[in-house]
Amino acid sequence: MITAEGINKIYPLPGGEDFYALRDVNVTIPDGKLTILKGRSGSGKTTLLNILSALDDSSSGSVRFDDLMITGMTEKEKEQLRRYQIGFVFQAVALIPMMTAYENVEYALRLAGVKKGRKERAIECLTKVGLSERMYHLPAQMSGGEQQRVAIARAISHHPKVIFADEPTAELDTVTALRVVNIFKDLIKEEGCTIVMTTHSVDLMEAADVLYELLDGQVVNYTNREEVEQDER
After folding, report:
1. Which residues 6+ apart lie within 8 Å of 197 measured at CB?
2. 108-126 tens-digit pLDDT
């Protein structure tokens, strides 16, 4: 689905020195899987997520999304890619406060250019995340976990190929965080999408199909559950 090779992200510092937020990173994001980018604050995981999702450019290296080479795309081309083929879930859910859960999802469909079936799709997505009875509530009337589920429903509404989730469980308790990750796993099966998320929580590691651990801008550990299970056999 996504392949990144030789990714460097360099920020110049006063005095002529360079800071490497990412250094020679290579990752492959498989189709139809949950890939987790693990690392503590400052490890480079969010920087990598932003580059993989065409929100930011690398200083060097290349990123390929399916058959498209993201590296070298114009800003307009990247915007089109993000609008139609990518969904985003952020730590700050960024719901529109004066809109109900249903209206937030339906509005996202409008922005994605969906002209028909918006009502049905919005209801379907909110039902998938367990909010069929809460869809006409405002964000302020919902818990943090419910708001995050609205954000997930919004992210999947336009049938994106990939959903990028940056620390989506950081503000949630462990039980709610695990529920959100289980929703991700169900959506991969039901929607046929690919999900890439960042986290620093060790409680969520077991849910990953593929795990990349970053430290000081470099990949220091890689685990593919399928490969591990095959070796154990």
Report:
1. 34, 35, 36, 37, 89, 164, 165, 166, 167, 168, 181, 184
2. 999 888 989 999 999 999 9
User: How far, CA to CA in Å, does 144 sit from each of 2, 94, 101, 152, 218?
Assistant: 31, 12, 13, 12, 32
Structure pTM? Answer: 0.91
Answer yes or no: is pLDDT of 89 > 80.
yes
Quote the CA–CA distance of 16 and 194 in Å, as a whole number.
Answer: 40
pLDDT of residue 164: 96
Q: Can you give the residue ranges of every domain in the chain?
A: 2-232
User: Would the CA dihedral through 39, 168, 156, 178 be positive or negative?
Assistant: positive
Tell me which architecture the domain covering 2-232 has in CATH.
Answer: 3-Layer(aba) Sandwich (3.40)
What secondary structure does DSSP assign to the chain, as a single string?
-EEEEEEEEEEE-TTS-EEEEEEEEEEEE-TTSEEEEE--TTSSHHHHHHHHTTSS--SEEEEEETTEE-TT--HHHHHHHHHHHEEEEESS----TTS-HHHHHHHHHHHTT--SSHHHHHHHHHHHTT-TTTTTS-GGGS-HHHHHHHHHHHHHTT--SEEEEESTTTTS-HHHHHHHHHHHHHHHHHH--EEEEEE--GGGGGG-SEEEEEETTEEEEEEEHHHHHHHH-
- For residue 92, the model assigns a pLDDT of 80
CA 73 to chain centre: 20
Q: Is the pLDDT of residue 232 over 80?
A: no
